[in-house]
Amino acid sequence: MERSSGHDEPQTGTEMGIEQPSLFGVEPPRHVILPPPALIQVPVLTPDSSLGACRLPYQEYLRLSARSPNTITCFLSDLAHLIAFLGDETRVREVTLGDLERWRQHLRMQGSPRGLSPAPKTVARRLTFVKNFFGWLQLSSSLHGPSRHCLNCCSSTRLAC
Length: 161
Hints:
By secondary structure, this protein is mainly α. The protein is 45% helix and 0% strand.
């Protein structure tokens, strides 16, 4: 029996010459879709790189190391404070323990926008940031010479927080 409703019945994919892949087959894909090229190229750092040039590579390092979004936000904020204090063009190799101690004192004296001193947890996090940042620089082979001594001092002594 043939129906005649005035409309043509929809054709299936097979009837139209389109082959549907099996859900359970193990056939290799017929084409490979490549990811789009990166929009931002992460620069390679050297001891002569500026602190400002460290922003994007450090952010990518934090993201890939499975840090929480809050930690990433806080560490990048701490880096921005450090760069604002030492200068965007300050070279990585030029940072000394004295610079970090002056930055810490500056943060303690500056306080918060409400006029209060930073909470002890904030000060501790900033020390953790310094150790993490300079440890990352050392691991990425960007830190040689005097600044390596700075990292060793950060690791072996407390910046009197």
